[in-house]
Structure formats: C-alpha cells, structure tokens
Specification:
The chain has 148 residues and is of the alpha/beta class. The chain has one domain: HybD-like (Rossmann fold, 3-Layer(aba) Sandwich). The chain has four helices and five strands, in the order βαβββααβα. A five-stranded mixed beta sheet has the order 2-1-3-5-4. The two termini are 19 Å apart. Keywords: Aspartyl protease, Hydrolase, Protease. Pfam families: HycI. Belongs to the peptidase A31 family.
Length: 148
C-alpha cells in the first residue's frame, strides 16, 4: 500500500515545530522505503486536502496536547482525531480535526484507507524526534499492526 507521511507545524513557534523536526530527521535518513512519500505540510491547512485524495495510508506528524499526559510519542487513530475537539470551527486554528471532517465532503479522488497521527507531546528531545520518525515510518509501511 502506498503511504504518505505529512509533517505539519510551524518552525517559528516554540512547541509547534515537532512535526517539522521529524520531517528534517526523515530527510536525513539514507533510505525511505519504496512507496512512502514524506511531505513537509507546514501550515498548509486545507491545502493539504489534495494530498489526501490518492488513497493509501496517511500518517500525520504534529505536536499534540492532552493525549499523553506529560511528554512522549502517541499514536492517535482517525476517529480519535475527529473526536479530539468538542466543536469544529472554521478559523485559522481549525486544525487537523476540521481537515479530516471536510475531506469526505470535498474529495474528488480516492479517500485514504487509513489515517492516523503520530503526536509528539511535551518538550521535543532529540531522542523523542528520532523515536517519532521511526514510528512514523513503521506505521506508514505496515499500519498499526507494525507496532505489535
């Protein structure tokens, strides 16, 4: 199955650069497995929709709050992402839940078969970024079953 790892965040805001730090780490890997595309999503917001219309597996990587409790790497499945906000809003901070809620309504192509988020919570140490990069590649290649 083809897969995309979409790293999102803002390099200029402390605490929001986690996904992009993982992107940088993945760019330094000698080899990304065939069929996996690594994308710097940055602050693209709804412009990411076109990247989600090709089916396959999609793994987002981003900073999160309120999932892990203190710090670490967490995997959040599609339904949990959608339920992570009590109210969808339409402003600049709408985020990933809004993007995924809109996707089925506007998709012109093939919806992803699997969508998940590798979230980094708390202070991003070098070890945590490396761990998130490893998990992102494993989940992109094998889905959640690759972690067992």
């Amino acid at each position: 199955m083809k897969a995309s790892i979409i790293c999102i965040g803002n390099r200029f805001v402390a605490g929001d650069e986690a996904g992009l730090l993982v992107f940088d780490r993945l760019q330094n890997r000698p080899e990304i497995p065939e069929g996996i595309t690594v994308i710097e999503g940055g602050l693209a917001g709804l412009n990411l929709l076109s990247l989600l219309e090709t089916g396959g597996r999609v793994v987002f990587v981003d900073a999160v709050k309120g999932f892990k409790g203190s710090s670490g790497v967490v995997i959040v499945e599609h339904e949990e992402i959608l339920g992570s906000t009590s109210q969808l809003h339409f402003d600049h901070g709408a985020g990933l839940p809004y993007l995924l809620a809109v996707l089925p309504r506007v998709c012109d192509g093939e919806l992803p078969e699997e969508i998940m988020l590798v979230g980094l919570e708390g202070e991003c140490t070098s070890e945590m970024i490396e761990h998130a990069a490893d998990i992102s590649l494993t989940v992109a290649a094998h889905g959640l079953k690759g972690l067992t």
